[in-house]
Amino acid sequence: MSATLDGWRRHMAEQGHELLGTALRRAERIRAEDAGLPGLRESACSTSARGASPGTRSVSSSA
């Protein structure tokens, strides 16, 4: 288990900035594409009664 964690730690130290940058660019691209979909809205609150996370999307029941 320790070797696995050490390997992951090394991987993140060597490529972490690139991996995070790629993930953030992908998330932004998906957000932009989702913005044009009817019936989708971004949650404005940090949590709701259903336990939604900030920035989560939900399908409107009136769509």
Strand-and-helix sequence, N→C?
HEE
* Overall 3D shape: elongated
The main β sheet shows up as:
2 strands, antiparallel
Distance between the termini: 48 Å
Number of helices: 1
Domains (count): 1
**Average residue-wise pLDDT:** 78
Give the gist of this structure.
It is built from one helix and two strands. It is mostly helical.
Report on the architecture of this protein.
The protein is mainly α and about 60 residues long. It has one domain (about 1-60). The protein is about 50% helix and about 10% strand. The protein is built from one helix and two strands. The chain has a two-stranded antiparallel ribbon. The longest helix is centred in the first third of the chain and has 33 residues, at about 1-35. The radius of gyration is 17 Å and the shape is elongated. The relative contact order is 0.10.
Brief descriptors of the model:
63 residues, elongated, mainly alpha, 52% helix, two-stranded antiparallel ribbon
SSE inventory with pairings:
Elements: H1 2-34, E1 40-42, E2 57-59
Antiparallel strand pairs: 1-2
